[in-house]
Design goal:
Length: 144
């Protein structure tokens, strides 16, 4: 059931922005040796499962427009983290896949994210985490 209005006082979106910036700073500090931008980290984290994706699929998973993602992919390819090839049966579609060094970086990123999430949210009740995910899903849906 949706509430009729957002409670006054503390803005959830401003708190989310602060939390996002703080989280990005923590991730950057913990992954400083990789020397990646937040967008590059996001792309690699979304490829960490080892499944190749098209630019559109990766953009949807990362919450980034394909046109914005192109520059990120250019940089990752130059650094040897990804390759771009064609999909079997569809030469027009570009498939993004991790290289061996990309797999190592992506695994480190995923582990760092999991560790940070466990530290930050580990003491919260499951209902709170579920509510948090419901809020995130509603915001994603609004932006879609």
């Amino acid at each position: 059931m949706k509430s009729e209005s957002v409670p006054s006082g503390r803005s959830a979106l401003l708190a989310l922005q602060r939390a996002t910036h703080a989280t990005l700073q923590l991730i950057a500090a913990e992954l400083v040796d990789l020397d990646l931008t937040a967008s590059e980290t996001n792309a690699l984290a979304n490829l960490a499962d080892g499944r190749g994706r098209t630019v559109s699929q990766l953009g949807a998973a990362a919450g980034t427009r394909p046109t914005t993602l192109t520059g990120v992919l250019d940089r990752l390819e130059r650094r040897g983290y990804i390759t771009r090839g064609t999909r079997a049966g569809d030469r027009r579609s570009v498939l993004i896949e991790l290289t061996e060094s990309g797999q190592a970086a992506a695994a480190l990123i995923r582990q760092t994210l999991a560790d940070l999430e466990n530290r930050a949210l580990g003491g919260l009740p499951a209902e709170s985490i579920a509510g948090f995910h419901a809020v995130l899903d509603a915001l994603i849906e609004e932006g879609s």
